[in-house]
Amino acid sequence: MTPQQNPRDDTRFTARRALVLAFVLAGASALGWAVFSLPLDASGLTGPALEQLAKSGVTNPVTAAVLNYRGYDTLIEIGVLLLSVLGVWSVAKADTFANPPPASPVLWSFLRLVLPVMLLIVGYLLWIGSFAPGGAFQAGAILAGAIVLWLLADAGRTPLPRAWMLRVALALGLVVFIAVAVGVMLPGGKLLEYPPAHAGSLILLIESAALVSIAATLAALFLGGRLANDSDATNSAKPQKGAR
Fold it and tell me: Is the sign of the CA dihedral 42, 44, 47, 48 positive or negative?
């Protein structure tokens, strides 16, 4: 016989569902009110942003907004990418292709044709980002795609890079971004306030470092876990205490 369900439990469950529904409706109502209350002819900050474009170091308004006007947001985004990898690494280790399948001649032939073009596009998007649509995020995604294709074609036959190399690549974008943000304060400036004479070079430096970190982040997420580091390999090679 199954025990009878307490009517109070049903009442509490219904009350929770009603409370959750009320919060959802309140949030949706607030979001809808915010959208419909926006003025139809609002110019926003387009005018002031375009007026200061000459001092931003680039001629592309998107790049100026992302890496100059609101560099704080982009700095946080680079940090979030690093945290996402650390979160995955805290859960599992990477699949190292213990039993690699036979090499696919079709995939290798495709990779030989496409990989040089992809690398060329990566460099082009990084460079063109200062005056046209492009930049580190787009270039990093394509570079990550090239790395993923190589991982699929190689299937673990070539040893993966050292764990410390991957860590350096993951942290490079954030470290360089913070170094530039703090470095511009030394002559008396403010955080992330680039000198107009060097703004273009500093933005290109940040984007180059971010390109490496973005590609490494996406490739590390594809692997699905952390690589075996040197200390793990060293500890596994050492004889255990008491072992003969």
Answer: positive
C-alpha span between 170 and 217 (Å, rounded): 6
> pTM to 2 decimals?
0.73
Phi-psi label, residue 135: left if phi above 0, alpha if psi -120 to 50, beta otherwise? left
- Encode the chain (244 residues) as per-residue pLDDT tens digits: 445 556 666 677 788 888 889 999 999 999 999 888 877 776 677 788 888 888 888 988 888 888 888 888 999 999 999 999 998 888 877 765 556 666 678 888 888 899 999 999 999 999 998 888 888 999 999 999 999 888 888 766 667 677 788 899 999 999 999 999 999 888 887 888 898 888 899 999 999 999 999 999 999 888 887 776 544 443 443 444 444 3
- What the block records as the tokens of 15 is 């009350």
- Beta-carbon contacts of 62 under 8 Å, excluding residues fewer than 6 positions away, are 133, 135
Q: How far is the C-alpha of 18 from the C-alpha of 11, rounded, in Å?
A: 10
Rounded Cα–Cα distance for residues 175 and 103 (Å): 38
The identity of residue 49, as a single letter, is A
